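Shapes recur. Our protein:

. . .
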Amino acid sequence: MKVLKFGGSSLADAVRYLRVTEICMTTHQTEGAAVVLSAPKGVTNALSLLCEQAAQGDDFQPLFQKLTDTVQGIANELNQTLDNFAHQDVSAFIETRLTTLKQQLEGIKLLGCAPDNVAAGILSVGEYISVNLFSAILQSKGVTNQIIDPVEYVLAHGDYLDSIADVALSKARFSEVQSDGSQLLIMPGFVAVNEEGEKVTLGRNGSDYSAAILAACISAQCCEIWTDVDGVYNADPNQVEGAVLLDKLTYQEAMELSYFGAKVLHPKTIGPIAQHHIPCLIRNTLNPAAPGTLISDEASEKWTSVKGISQLDDVTMFNVAGPGLKGMVGMASRVFGVMSNANISISLITQSSSEYSISFCILEKDAQRALHLLEDAFALELQNQLLDPIEVRNKLAIVTLVGDGMRQTKGLAARFFAALSQARVNNVAIAQGSSERSISTVVEAEKAKKAVRVIHQNFFSNRHTIDVFLIGSGNVGTELLSQIARQQPTLLNRNIQVRVYGIANSRKLLLNTHGIDVNSDWQSELNRADEAMTLGRLKAFVNENCLVNPVIVDCTSHEAIASQYVDMMEQGFHVVTPNKKANTDSMAYYRKLRKTTQTTNRQYFYETTVGAGLPVIDNLQKLFAAGDVLHQFEGILSGSLSYVFGKLEEGMTLSQATAAAKENGYTEPDPRDDLSGMDVARKLLIMAREAGLSLELADIDIESVLPEGFAEGASIDEFMEKLPELDNGFNERVEAAKNNDCVLRYIGSIEGDKCKVTIQAVPLSHPLAAVKDGENALAISSDYYQPIPYVIRGYGAGGTVTAAGVFADILRTMPWKQAAL
């Protein structure tokens, strides 16, 4: 015979009662069935709330009427659906139970409280209604059945509302129950009786526990717990995207997972089935064809190491410490004796090797009572300062990694804590059982969900996630989003998921908890957004959605954004940018940026600040990391000025070449930013600092394309109208260079500790003479590269190549990339 348990949404209405009936009848016809039922969905919560309302003297009639309508409504629906349904008998039973309930509520209202023994009877009303509905359905279908009242069979002890069954004594009582499969047995879950003959309840998930008790008492061949999920997942599928369904768990693994917060099964449920070696199958009422998860002595052949991750919320940690603990025999026993005598369950224990302190975790609801008890028990030690004041830390959670095969797998603890470090989750306390079946860490409650996600990603998924927040939706930013959209299928095939959660411009911020569809009209959504961009808002969004790998991508040229990079990294964001303002700020800020990347374990990538999509910075860093020393550098560092000076060579005037460069997207929105030479100077300064030179922007000699004060204060349009005034002067310089078989080029150079940016007439044989049309070229002479320099050349202007370089930097923030850096 099999025991089948149903509850929750499985018993929400008449249709679902009939679905449960079909499942049970199928099992009963082949193997015999005993069925344990919970109350109809929402009924137990309503009963609990009715007790509260009555105790507070509130009007409970509206809720009572809603409850009446719910249960009588199911009976009415069944009567309309089924022939020969004993509607009159069922309705009479419900009416009798509800009449008694109303009388009890009136009594509670007079008392001003709900005594636990009375509450136990009230809270179990739903289960008794449920089994009578179900029995009537079976009778209408001609199935012989018997309702078993647990009050007559299941003996328990403990609190009225959270009792523990004595399975051995209960099993003796079940000897008279006919369990040969000749009739279908039905038992209300959640209910038992104490030694005084009073009705008690079995606490949270009590109906699951009842099913396990019944299975043990009748020696069932299997206990099936039917829920609204396909089985046990390796993490909560409501919290972790990509949670994996487990095929098998051992009793010990299931116990560890359930004890530390897994919601499918309660630890009390596993006890009876494990003790009597009864297999337990977790199945889905809404998907009966799914195989479910088997809990037994049989280990999984698919998941041989780590099985799952659980999260226990609402935890408080106590730390009992002081010189009186050192070498004093029996102190630990006294601490835990206090908790035991108060019936307070301890979830986790750690003790320092110095014997100076003992830490343990309990549920938050017991924390205040536990503190008072400990202070009373150790009043003398506290008074004489043998113990420090007892430390209490609230708002914690326990995250646990579980698996029988963990003891045979090396490096699991290292991976576990490395994952937490990656997500910037601090360990408040750590515990590992001697069985090596689990590793637990205590973390801040607000970080628990993120911890579970990142651990799951590291142990169960090959997919790397990157959570992007883009600031700046101009030319480069828009192109970057287009590239991300085009690359999504390819990236997913490589197990990389780049999801854009936020887009901001100078006025507005668009956020989406599910990710912004970058293939859609996100510009219109951004225009309709009603939030302003602040770092605090982004941080709050990351915390609310427990994002694991958040990256801020700054595609602006604003100094105000660049000045926040240190704060961004300290708040847990990686930073990727083509914005040169941060790296060319003061030397003190430059050093602070580097120090922050080390102290925060965050990445700061800025490859596109020099050479756009060319790998300039990365190659420089690798050279100098390998001990190379820079002797000399010269190059064309501006794609826009490469384009402009190339067009001058072809016969265009300065104003014509600048207008063409602006139209093609090579220049900044204000071309003066390019023509002033400041953009090249910033790039040169970045390279100089990468080479180890401690220079400021003011130390660079800059020859501007524009005369000092030219069009100062004018708008962009006014500047472009005024620019032809410089054409004749430049035409003369171009012709003079041409007459000497030279061409004009805008060149940045470093020699020793001197940096300068100049307009030079270079011979046609010079390597930089051929660099034009938006190309960049860099020649590096060093210890390793002489007399022939190391040359990097390629296109360095335009939104497309810059966005591609930014995209490449974004991909470098993946965890496995971080580990390699």
